[in-house]
Inverse folding.
C-alpha cells in the first residue's frame, strides 16, 4: 500500500497525486512511467510520472480522467492508499546537450513533458517549449514549463490563450524560418505526435515521441504494448516509451489502443452507477 | 491371518480414481478440475506401493524427483495413517507441496520410475503429495514456523516464482535471514500469472507463500530489481543473492499480421485472466475478450491452459494449432486428456503462415498449412515439413501465441559482470553459481523455459551451494575459467 500525500485537480478532468514511495523516487528519471493499481480489483495502468522527489520520498502522477480507473483515482484524497505502485519503468529520456531542443506537449502529455524539459535544460540545451490544449482552462504545467524554457509558446485550439491554433503551427514556422532545431521531442495525443513527425521527417530533424500503448504488466512480460518501429515489433514498456517518431507505425498504435473500448465503457458505466 | 500376510502382495492394477468435475459442467466455471482424494482413498493408493528399496539395477521413484523427496518414507506413513509425520517428511525436501502435487509432470519423474508401473498403472505419487498438502492446509495452522537460531547471514532473492520461493524456504529453514523481491503485486511467478485457477487455485499458492512468510521470510512486492536496486546494490546489503527471474519474455511467430488486434501472447492472455482476474470482469477491472473462435498456436502446457481457459470464457470453438502430431505434444498427458474431454479441437500437423485482419485492424482468419513429419531433428523429435498446396483458412476472433518464452533480460542487462549464454540465460555451474561472486541463479532464467519442479530443483541446489558459501567455504570459481566452462556453450 502506498499513501497519497497530496491530491489536487489540475484541470476539471486531470488529477494529480503525490504518493509516498521513497524507493521509486530515489531511482526515477525523466521519461519513465509507473504502473498504478488503485485497489485489489483494479487494473494495472501505466501513468506518467509528472515529478519525483528523492528528498521528500514521493512521486507525482497525473492522469486524464477518461475511464473507470482514472476516474477512480480522481476521487482519491490525501491519506488514501494505492494498492500497487510499480516503477520506475521504461527507459529514461536520453539526455545530452543536443544544442537547440524543441519540445512540444499537448493535453495530459504536458505532465510528462515537465520533468523531461527540466532535464533537457539541466543538460545544457537551449530549450524551446511549445505547449497546447483545447482551451486555456485545460492548460497545465504552464508556469513550471515556462520556468525551464529559453523560449516558450502557448497554443489553444479556440484561441483563448496564446496562439490560436495547433502546436504544430509554431514548429512549421520555425522550419520555414530555418531556425536551428537539433531535436524535436513530442508528447501528447497520438494524432499530435504523428503530425509533428510528418512535419520533421522531410527535414531530417531527429524527432522523439513518447508513446502510450495499453499495458498489462509493464515489465516486458506480456507484449500487450507492442508497437511497430521501422517494421520491427518493440515493447512500449521496456524498449520505450520513447521512440524515433519517424519510425513509429502510428496507424497500428491507434488501432491497438482501441482494443478494449466496449469493455472500458462497461466498466465506466458500472462505476458511475455504483456511486 | 498370519498366513495371508506371508503371501506376495496382490497389486491393484489401476490408481484409485481421482474424483473430477464433469467436463460439461467444468467448462462453465474456473473451479479446480480434480477434486482431490479422501483419506480412505489415499491410504488405499499408498497401499499399492511395494516399498521397494534402492537398487543399482534400476531407479526408484525418489531418484526421479528433482527435489529428492523421500517418497517411500512418506508413503509408508500414509499407509500407517500418520499424515502428520508424512507431511513432515514431505516438507523436509519440498517447499511447495500443494503446487507440485498438482502441476508436476509425474509421468516422466517419480511415477515414471515406479516398479508397479512396469505392468500396471504406477502408484499415484502426485495425488498422494496433493492429498498430504491439502490435509495439512485443512488443519488450518497459523503462526510462526519453527526455524533454527539466526546465522547472522542475509540473503536476497530476486523473483518470487517457484525457484525463488524454494531458495527462500530452504535458506529460512537453515536459519538465514531471507528477503524476496517480487516485481508483481503477488508472489508466485508463473503459479500466479500463468497457471489457471482450474488447474492451480490461487488460494493454494497464497497459502504456500504464507507458509514461507511464517518461516520469517520478508517479501517485497511491486519491486523490480534492475529498475529499483541493481544486483550490485543488493550485494552491499546482503551476503548472497539468488536470481530467479524466469522466462517472462514471450516468443512470437513473426508472421505477417501478428500485431493485429485480437492476437496476443499466451502470457498476456493468461496474465489478464489469472493475475488480474479478468475472468471475473467487470467485478475486476481488467478486460479480456475471446469471440466465437479462439486459435491457440503451440502444443505445450501453456497452450492447453490457453485453449481450456478460452472455453471457460465462453468461446464456442477453441482450436489448438500444432505443427507435429499428438504423440509429440509437449504438454503433460493429463492436460491433453482434459483438453480433449472438454471439447478442445486439435488441428494437428498444421502450422500458421499468416494472420488476416479486417478493415478495423482486428484478426479474422489464420492462414495455415498442413505438415508431415520427416526425419528427427536436433531435439530428437521428427521435423515437421510443409505439404505444398495444402494451405487452409481458420476463422478466429482471438489468436493466442503459445510457442515459448525467453529469459527475462532485465537483471542480466543491469548486472554487467553476470555472464549470459547466447540465448540470454544466465550461465551457472552445476551448483547454481554464476560468474559473479556471491550471486546464484536458477529456474528458467538459467535453464530456459522449463517446468515448475525443475525450477524448484535448481533452487534446491542453489540453496545448498549458497549455504556452503556463507557458512564454510567462501571461495568462488575464477571468472575466466567459469566463462569457458559454463557460458560459451
Amino acid at each position: 500500500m502506498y499513501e497519497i500525500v497530496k491530491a489536487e485537480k489540475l484541470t476539471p478532468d486531470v488529477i494529480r497525486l503525490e504518493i509516498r514511495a521513497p524507493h521509486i523516487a530515489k531511482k526515477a528519471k525523466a521519461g519513465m512511467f509507473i504502473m498504478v493499481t488503485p485497489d485489489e480489483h483494479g487494473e494495472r495502468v501505466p501513468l506518467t510520472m509528472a515529478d519525483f522527489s528523492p528528498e521528500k520520498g514521493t512521486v507525482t502522477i497525473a492522469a486524464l480522467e477518461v475511464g473507470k480507473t482514472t476516474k477512480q483515482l480522481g476521487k482519491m484524497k490525501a491519506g488514501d492508499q494505492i494498492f500497487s505502485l510499480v516503477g520506475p519503468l521504461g527507459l529514461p529520456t536520453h539526455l545530452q546537450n543536443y544544442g537547440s531542443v524543441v519540445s512540444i506537449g499537448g493535453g495530459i502529455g504536458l505532465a510528462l513533458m515537465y520533468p523531461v524539459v527540466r532535464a533537457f535544460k539541466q543538460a545544457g540545451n537551449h530549450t524551446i517549449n511549445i505547449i497546447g490544449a483545447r482551451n486555456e482552462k485545460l492548460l497545465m504545467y504552464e508556469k513550471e514549463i515556462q520556468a525551464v524554457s529559453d523560449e516558450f509558446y502557448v497554443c489553444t485550439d479556440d484561441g483563448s490563450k496564446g496562439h490560436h491554433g495547433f502546436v504544430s503551427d509554431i514548429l512549421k514556422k520555425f522550419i520555414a524560418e530555418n531556425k536551428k532545431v537539433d531535436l524535436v521531442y513530442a508528447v501528447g495525443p497520438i494524432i499530435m505526435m504523428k503530425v509533428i513527425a510528418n512535419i520533421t521527417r522531410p527535414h531530417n530533424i531527429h524527432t522523439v515521441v513518447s508513446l502510450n500503448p495499453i499495458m498489462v504488466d509493464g515489465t516486458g512480460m506480456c507484449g500487450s504494448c507492442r508497437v511497430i518501429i521501422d517494421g520491427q515489433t518493440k515493447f512500449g514498456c521496456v524498449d520505450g516509451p520513447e521512440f524515433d517518431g519517424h519510425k513509429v507505425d502510428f496507424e497500428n498504435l491507434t488501432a491497438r489502443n482501441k482494443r478494449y473500448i466496449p469493455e472500458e465503457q462497461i466498466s465506466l458505466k458500472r462505476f458511475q452507477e455504483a456511486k | 491371518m498370519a498366513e495371508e500376510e506371508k503371501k506376495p502382495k496382490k497389486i491393484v492394477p489401476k490408481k484409485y480414481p481421482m474424483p473430477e468435475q464433469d467436463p460439461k459442467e467444468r467448462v462453465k466455471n474456473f473451479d479446480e478440475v480434480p477434486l482431490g482424494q479422501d483419506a480412505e482413498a489415499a491410504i488405499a493408493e499408498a497401499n499399492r506401493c511395494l516399498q521397494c528399496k534402492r537398487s543399482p539395477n534400476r531407479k526408484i521413484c525418489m531418484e526421479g524427483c528433482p527435489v529428492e523427496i523421500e517418497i517411500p518414507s512418506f508413503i509408508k506413513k500414509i499407509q500407517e495413517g500418520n499424515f502428520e509425520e508424512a507431511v513432515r517428511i514431505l516438507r523436509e525436501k519440498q517447499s511447495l507441496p500443494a503446487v507440485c502435487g498438482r502441476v508436476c509432470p509425474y509421468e516422466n519423474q517419480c511415477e515414471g520410475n515406479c516398479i508397479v508401473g512396469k505392468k500396471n498403472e504406477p502408484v499415484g505419487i502426485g495425488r498422494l503429495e496433493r492429498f498430504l498438502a491439502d490435509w495439512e492446509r485443512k488443519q488450518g495452522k497459523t503462526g510462526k514456523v519453527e526455524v533454527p537460531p539466526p546465522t547472522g547471514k542475509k540473503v536476497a532473492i530476486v523473483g518470487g516464482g517457484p525457484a525463488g520461493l524454494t531458495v527462500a524456504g530452504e535458506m529460512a529453514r537453515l536459519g538465514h535471514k531471507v528477503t524476496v523481491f517480487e516485481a508483481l503485486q503477488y508472489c508466485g511467478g508463473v503459479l500466479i500469472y500463468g497457471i489457471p485457477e482450474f488447474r492451480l487455485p490461487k488460494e493454494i499458492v497464497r497459502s504456500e507463500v504464507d507458509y514461507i512468510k511464517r518461516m520469517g521470510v520478508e517479501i517485497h512486492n511491486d519491486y523490480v530489481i534492475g529498475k529499483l536496486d541493481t544486483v550490485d546494490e543488493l550485494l552491499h546489503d546482503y551476503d548472497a543473492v539468488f536470481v530467479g527471474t524466469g522466462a517472462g519474455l514471450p516468443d512470437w511467430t513473426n508472421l505477417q499480421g501478428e500485431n493485429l488486434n485480437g492476437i496476443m501472447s499466451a502470457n498476456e492472455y493468461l496474465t489478464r485472466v489469472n493475475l488480474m482476474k479478468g475472468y471475473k470482469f467487470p467485478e475486476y477491472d481488467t478486460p479480456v475478450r475471446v469471440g466465437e473462435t479462439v486459435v491457440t498456436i503451440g502444443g505445450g502446457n501453456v497452450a492447453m491452459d490457453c485453449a481450456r481457459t478460452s472455453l471457460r470464457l465462453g468461446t464456442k470453438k477453441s482450436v489448438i494449432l500444432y505443427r507435429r502430431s499428438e504423440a509429440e505434444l509437449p504438454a503433460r498427458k493429463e492436460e491433453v486428456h482434459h483438453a480433449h474431454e472438454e471439447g478442445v479441437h486439435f488441428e494437428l500437423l498444421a502450422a500458421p503462415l499468416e494472420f488476416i485482419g479486417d478493415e478495423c485492424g482486428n484478426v479474422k482468419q489464420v492462414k495455415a498449412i498442413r505438415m508431415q513429419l520427416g526425419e528427427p531433428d536436433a531435439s530428437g523429435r521428427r521435423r515437421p515439413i510443409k505439404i505444398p498446396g495444402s494451405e487452409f483458412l481458420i476463422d478466429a476472433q482471438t489468436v493466442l501465441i503459445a510457442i515459448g518464452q525467453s529469459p527475462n533480460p532485465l537483471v542480466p542487462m543491469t548486472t554487467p559482470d553476470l555472464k549470459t549464454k547466447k540465448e540470454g540465460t544466465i550461465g551457472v555451474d552445476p551448483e547454481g553459481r554464476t560468474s559473479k561472486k556471491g550471486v546464484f541463479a536458477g529456474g528458467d532464467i538459467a535453464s530456459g523455459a522449463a517446468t515448475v519442479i525443475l525450477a524448484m530443483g535448481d533452487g534446491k541446489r542453489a540453496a545448498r551451494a549458497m549455504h556452503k558459501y556463507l557458512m564454510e567455504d567462501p571461495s568462488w570459481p575464477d571468472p575466466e575459467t567459469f566463462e569457458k566452462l559454463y557460458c560459451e556453450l
About this structure: The mean pLDDT of chain B is 92.
